[in-house]
Amino acid sequence: MKICEKCYQLIDCPFNGKDPHGSDCPVYAEQTACWLFDWVSFYKAMSEGEDKKHWLHAMVDMCRECEVYQTHSEEMEDILKSMIYCD
Length: 87
Prior knowledge:
Helix content: 55-70%
Radius of gyration: 13 Å
Number of domains: 1
Strand content: under 5%
Number of helices: 6
Largest sheet: none
Shape: globular
């Protein structure tokens, strides 16, 4: 894997080929990589409520199953733990 490759370039991402500015994925919108994105700040900025809780649980479950996560598991695990314990 090349260092400059982004997560959405490494997997069959549903956002590939779409306009990044209209993306629901903050990583794709910024054209960065998931293991480099500031997820903790993004999560803290979310409105409190069920959507925020659901989003965190979905991300934890989905990320750990992702092929990119496996390659960057140390960085991603640190990010997920920081998100879980930031409140």
